[in-house]
Amino acid sequence: MRLLLIGAPGAGKGTQAERLAARFGIAHISSGDLLRQHVRDQTALGRTVKSYVDNGDLVPDQVVMDMLRKPVVAAVRGYVLDGFPRTVEQAEASYAAVRSLGVEVQAAIHLDVPREELVRRLLARGRGTEDAETVIEHRLQVYQEMTVPLLAYYAGREWMSTVDGSRSADAVHDDIVRRIQRLAAFVTIAPA
Ligand code: AP5
Ligand code: MG
């Protein structure tokens, strides 16, 4: 099974991806977690991306796509991608790349959460520079400008669902699983 989770900063992409990965035995691939790991390890890639991540700006497309290729191809039982694609350009470029490998996405879930709740969650979490109030504001603005057009681009596709992400993590998880099961009834989602 190959899934995408799309949502604003703090929408619960990481929280839900972890649960879905455990439930379906698929790989959780988070672009943000991988980038932060590179920054912590001070790799060449980490040094290149640090200021983008700290400031809440998107890292250049090519850097993210090069970083994700290997884990996506290695995920033979499937994956839940958290935080990628984030722009129409990333969606178009990556689709071309994965399609030839037969590992294109089968379902996308948009986690919809009101802005006040996003800010509340991120301030409560306080993940370093990234969760400073001004950086949170900037990340939300980048989401509006760069990722909301991706939702419009995917709108109307039968494999795209919007889920109310403001409920408890358990309720959101159950809703996502129901959507996937409904989708699996009419498209082929191989468990492996
Ligand atoms: P990324 O790591 O993707 O950050 P983000 O989109 O800002 O989202 P977060 O990880 O902060 O939130 P989340 O939606 O995962 O929510 P979480 O489950 O943690 O990206 C970081 C940076 O990397 C970007 O700014 C950019 O620089 C770069 N980057 C990444 N991908 C890129 C790409 N494709 N292209 C270019 N650059 C890229 O939950 C948040 C909090 O809320 C937690 O404390 C959690 O416990 C809590 N919570 C979760 N669910 C619930 C719930 N249902 N109820 C109550 N609390 C909840
Ligand atoms: Mg996350």
Question: What does it look like?
Answer:
There is one protein chain. The chain has helices at residues 13-24, 31-41, 44-55, 61-74, 88-99, 115-125, 133-154, 169-184; strands at residues 2-7, 27-30, 79-82, 107-112, 160-164. 57% of the residues lie in helices and 13% in strands. A five-stranded parallel β-sheet has the order 2-3-1-4-5, with helices on both faces. It starts with a strand and ends in an 8-residue tail after the last helix. It is of the alpha/beta class and 192 residues long. The longest helix is centred in the C-terminal third of the chain and has 22 residues, at 133-154. The protein contains eight helices and five strands; from the N terminus they run E-H-E-H-H-H-E-H-E-H-H-E-H. The structure holds BIS(adenosine)-5'-pentaphosphate and magnesium ion. Residues 13-14, 30, 32, 82 line the site of magnesium ion (MG).
